[in-house]
Amino acid sequence: MANVVVVGAQWGDEGKGKVVDIYTEHAQAVVRYQGGNNAGHTLVVGNEKTVLHLIPSGILHDGKKCIIGNGVVLDPAVFIQEIDNLKKKGYLRDDSQLVIDRNVHIIMPYHKKIDITRESKQSERRIGTTGRGIGPTYEDKAGRRGIRLCDLINDTIFVQKLREILPEKNFLLEHYFHEEPLSEQQILDEYRRYAERLSPYIGNTSQLLESCRLKGHNILFEGAQGSLLDVDHGTYPYVTSSSTLAGGACTGTGFGPRFIHEVIGISKAYVTRVGEGPFPTELSDDTGERIRKAGSEFGATTGRPRRTGWFDAVALREAVRTNGMTGLAITKLDVLDTFDAIRVCTAYSYQGQLLEEFPSDANILRHCKPVYEELDGWKCDISAARSYADLPPAAQRYLDKMQEISRCPIVLVSVGPRRDQTIQLRNPFHA
């Protein structure tokens, strides 16, 4: 038995969906533990692409229990649409395969409206949110004003809570944002329909996972976003609103930390970032655009072009430490196939100082300049490689350098979007 947490090791969009999809073969349960539909995991099976925003990536495998933990915030409309789309493709034939924790917080219409209007007023202080209402929902959760799934399915409680909070939200919308107020009756009518659709999937994540553990089942925990977007340890305030680190797997599911065996960090062979915030190795030139086009770097959730940059070992070391990573999965190595030379950031320069550790203050990070080491490119197509030995020597040297300066061993290398375009060096479920 092994329980494995998969986390993003950068600013998100690292290819976690593919890695989770691969590791699902060895697990009996797959659990999403934080975030909302501001995340997008893209899976390619054969030539068919599936994008998931809430439902765990393991749903494409028959017989796997897929669970949405209490740490997630749920947009019912998006969740229901995902279910319908999966069923049209022939997946989720058995509804008992999917479980939502009864304590997930529900994204309401006022959350989305506040998110969008607040961001539009920020001008130079924009965070770069997706406008999905994630942040305002977590605000209400922390402020003990949230509506949970267990409240939604109890109509008496739902009506009571909505009537308590909606006047406050409408006052804010009308008198601060100068927006139209929301209709209580329209919300009630809409969300009562959602309650009916969601009811068959409700469960208790903590109890379910304990049952799995006692049966000796392997459990795979699927994080969203990336470590550098963690609300406590990321580049605050340019972060998401939840705990994206491996520790969030415990608080977001009610699973004890002593039962976690492996933490696998997913890192691209370069770096991307969506939205605002400091990005030391960002390439705002033809090289950055070349990486963007080769890697199809556009957001799975928003479609926004991602900012691109060379591999940043300083940021990765931060993610390795804060997550307690036991292994790295390197994705999109093939995107660098055509480069004559490839750069790796090994340290930062800040006001005449050499920084080898990631600064916790985003105001300092904004003024850090990357210190690069240059390696030779391999200048050939590696998409058919299925073992480390199949890779050209220059690609092997690049991976060896990544392991050395990140202080974490590589356990998987992705050389293309398909499942089979993967080199597995160590399986964390068989360690």
- Counted up, domains total 2
| Shape verdict | globular
Query: What is the fold-level CATH name, i.e. the topology of the largest domain?
Result: Adenylosuccinate Synthetase, Chain A, domain 3
Provide the CATH superfamily of the largest domain: Adenylosuccinate Synthetase, subunit A, domain 3
Spans with pLDDT under 50 lasting ≥5 residues?
none
> Pairing-aware structural class of the strands and helices?
alpha/beta
Task: Describe the overall structure.
- GTP binds at residues 12-18, 40-42, 306, 332-334, 414-416.
- It is found in: Cytoplasm.
- Mg(2+) binds at residues 13, 40.
- Belongs to the adenylosuccinate synthetase family.
- It is a single chain.
- With 431 residues, this protein is α/β, with parallel strands linked by helices.
- It folds into 2 domains: 3-94 and 204-430, Adenylosuccinate Synthetase, Chain A, domain 3 (Alpha-Beta Complex); 105-200, Adenylosuccinate Synthetase, subunit A, domain 2.
- It is 32% helix and 20% strand.
- The protein contains 13 helices and 20 strands.
- It has helices at residues 16-24, 76-88, 109-122, 134-142, 149-152, 155-175, 184-198, 205-214, 248-251, 286-294, 313-323, 362-365, 393-406, and strands at residues 3-8, 29-32, 41-45, 48-52, 65-68, 73-74, 98-101, 105-106, 202-203, 219-222, 262-268, 271-273, 307-309, 311-312, 327-331, 341-350, 353-355, 369-376, 410-414, 422-424.
- The strands form 5 sheets. Strands 9-7-5-2-10-1-11-15-19-20 form a 10-stranded mixed beta sheet, with helices on both faces.
- Strand 19 (410-414) and strand 20 (422-424) form a beta hairpin.
- The mean pLDDT is 94.
